[in-house]
User: Which sequence fits this backbone?
């Protein structure tokens, strides 16, 4: 299901291109926050949708915060029962792809009380109707396998506003599905400033940074997602990768072309190959040509496995050092707490609650 309008996405894409130019000019002017729910291993959709951008921005010298949204898995029972393991696996994925804890702050929002406290004033700035309309929440609810929808689920976009605004991040590298959430964050920042900011602006209005793959499809032809059994995780081995790609949905037309609107499944595979090879999807499609779905899948398998080989090797090396993983999180939580405490103090002051 496409949860975000094509117009909205294309506007965000052109804005992302402008932002890229500004970032290159002055990387020190930006602060990035983005993150993931610890619901399972990270996959290629995450990687080309947002993870690769995070590492790139970090390496350009942009201050980067990486959030583990552990409160947002309480609605997911299988995960909540093994939360520690999920969080540690997520950190392993981060380290493996090149997030450097010396330069980027990796933290879990449940460990940052002042961040969570922002949720309360923020909740007063949005209406129930606005939360109800959010297409991503609707989609997440539809896929959540819950018997009843909990109140927490409706707070996700507001919680996310607290996640982004606690450190006053202006740039959020995300996939397309996050655009409606980010719109709520921007609304909350604007309304907070209007109501309490007087002549100062307490919060920035953060902008989305979309990648070249804002919606990578999974093996069943719908959005690649941890909870849909259609994902190719970064950490699986080369044989498993080959098996999953062999089973990916394509179409009946033999000649391979790159046409995302008319041939979404085939085009998503072509794009995946192009991203791994750092080439153009039209070139990949032409090269495969009449080789058909079989040849395309062999090409994708080879390029994905080659691209992921060093990431997979690093992951195995880091997995032997569980102490390091815990230390990364402890240090990140400490840094995040210091920033959140300062922001909450400022928020309480402008709200006349400075007692
Ligand atoms: P879940 O099914 O548990 O919601 P998910 O796979 O959708 O998991 P999230 O943790 O919700 O993953 O998303 C993390 C980040 O990855 C977000 O910025 C999201 O936009 C991005 N992302 C997730 N799936 C894709 C995808 N298929 N293509 C591009 N970006 C994606
Ligand atoms: Mg999701």
Assistant:
């Amino acid at each position: 299901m496409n949860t975000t309008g094509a117009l909205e996405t294309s506007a965000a894409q052109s804005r992302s291109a402008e932002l890229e130019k500004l970032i290159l000019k002055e990387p020190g002017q930006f602060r990035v926050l983005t993150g993931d729910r610890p619901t399972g291993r990270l996959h290629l959709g995450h990687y080309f949708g947002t993870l690769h951008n995070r590492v790139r921005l970090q390496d350009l010298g942009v201050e980067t915060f990486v959030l583990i949204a552990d409160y947002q898995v309480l609605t997911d029972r299988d995960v909540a029962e093994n939360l520690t393991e999920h969080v540690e696996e997520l950190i392993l994925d981060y380290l493996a792809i090149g997030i450097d804890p010396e330069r980027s702050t990796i933290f879990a929002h449940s460990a940052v009380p002042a961040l969570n406290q922002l949720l309360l004033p923020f909740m007063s700035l949005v209406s129930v109707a606005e939360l109800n309309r959010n297409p991503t929440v609707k989609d997440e609810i539809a896929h959540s396998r819950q018997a009843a929808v909990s109140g927490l689920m409706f707070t996700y976009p507001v919680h996310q506003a607290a996640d982004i605004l606690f450190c006053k991040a202006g740039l959020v590298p995300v996939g397309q599905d996050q655009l409606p959430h980010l719109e709520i964050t921007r609304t909350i920042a604007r309304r907070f400033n209007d109501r309490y900011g007087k002549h100062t602006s307490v919060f920035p209005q953060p902008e989305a940074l979309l990648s070249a793959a804002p919606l990578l499809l999974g093996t069943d032809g719908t959005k690649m997602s941890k909870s849909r059994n259609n994902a190719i995780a970064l950490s699986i081995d080369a044989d498993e990768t080959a098996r999953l790609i062999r089973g990916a949905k394509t179409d009946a037309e033999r000649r391979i072309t790159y046409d995302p609107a008319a041939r979404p499944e085939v085009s998503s595979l072509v794009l995946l190959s192009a991203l791994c090879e750092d080439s153009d999807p039209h070139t990949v499609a032409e090269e495969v040509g009449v080789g058909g779905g079989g040849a395309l899948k062999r090409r994708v398998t080879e390029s994905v496995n080659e691209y992921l080989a060093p990431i997979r090797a690093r992951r195995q090396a880091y997995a032997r050092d569980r102490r390091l993983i815990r230390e990364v999180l402890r240090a990140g939580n400490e840094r995040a707490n210091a920033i959140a405490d300062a922001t909450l103090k400022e928020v309480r002051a402008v709200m006349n609650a400075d007692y």
Residues 51 and 94 are 8 Å apart (CA to CA). The chain has a mean pLDDT of 94. The longest helix spans residues 322-350. The domain at 236-319 is CATH 1.10.240.10 (Tyrosyl-Transfer RNA Synthetase).
